[in-house]
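Lab notebook, bench 4. Still working through the backlog of constructs that have no structural model yet. Next entry is a single chain of 395 residues. Request: give me the structure tokens for it.
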Amino acid sequence: MLSVLLFFVIIWFVFDFYLGRKKHLSIVSRRETAIIHGDFDIFTHGKKLFADYFHELQSAKKHIHVLFYIVKDDAISQEFFNILKEKARSGVEVRLLIDRLGSLKVKKAAIQTLREAGVRFAFSNNIKLPFLFYSSQIRNHRKISIIDGEIGYLGGFNVGKEYIDEDPSVGIWRDYHLKITGRSVNFLQTEFLSDWHEYAGEDIMGNPAYFPDLADGQVRHRFVPTEAQQLEQNYLTLIQQARDSLIIGTPYFVPCQKILAALLAALKRGVHLSIIVPFAADHAFVQEGSFPYLRKLIQAGANVYQYKKGFYHAKTLLIDDKICDIGTANFDKRSMYLNKEINCYIYDPAFIQRLKEILEKDMDDSVPLTLAVLNKPNPIRSFKECIASLVSYFL
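Model written out:
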């Protein structure tokens, strides 16, 4: 009886996921900018980022719009909430959108106090009928903040103690996060308001107060939001453009077969491929899920670096020192097929040189992953690789 029930549950999961994804693909549309101009700064350390971010939040005069995937229940999260409540009480319009499952630790009492202070709060990606399993897997992984319509933040950091190096089990957190000013902040605002309309049910896109007249900055770039299957094609296009070098930085390396084939083809045509991943994993099976792909790439000539000076959570691609991609998307199937993400493609030589120096420093703080290590007999690791291959979509 139990085996029959399990069989029907599995069948239900499969059909729920298949039909849910089909429906999602039928309604999704592409939203990306042409080449636009802004001014950029980049943060690689959480304490410096949050010192700057909290200062800008406290300096807000009109409105604060924030979207995070993860907000925890700890000291820095409380500080973040307190700033938002203080600004709301002072008359600043504050909206906060967080992912339902990513921010599961945020308690109802905390939400109530935010709302009582005047913060407009909503969850993104609630589990809903008719596709319960599929909707439970679709996460809003974007991290966007817009302050007074003039300052934007985008990148890999969430809100929690691990992101400011206060979780001993993780150590120093290495990530890349952009601070953006100039006319292109308007698009980040548009993206936030689009998500807010979808999840909070409030359509305020037409309010001109959210879109001040800003000057162009110096850095050529474009923003590319993705969901459903869009990111896969974007990555394929970037990889196929590479002629000399390609650097990938990601905490989770679990590509689809099309992406793996494109990387192998790049190596075959002489592209120097380097991949930076963490030395230690922060989630079960994600590292073992990467090993089969990394093994094939190392065999074909790729260099893989395992970052040892803490946990590596950055999300970036650097192609031929001509294009860099920094954003919220990991180099894995979950980001390619399930998550809502937003990335920034940057074409400015000076900024690219700055990022390249960061990447070179991160590779210096890493150890090479070799075939000798990957092929050393290890029954436990082999078992985990098998399990990871079965659930690679959901790692």
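Notes after review: The chain has two domains: 31-217, 226-394. Residues 2-27 form the longest helix (26 residues). Flag for follow-up if needed.
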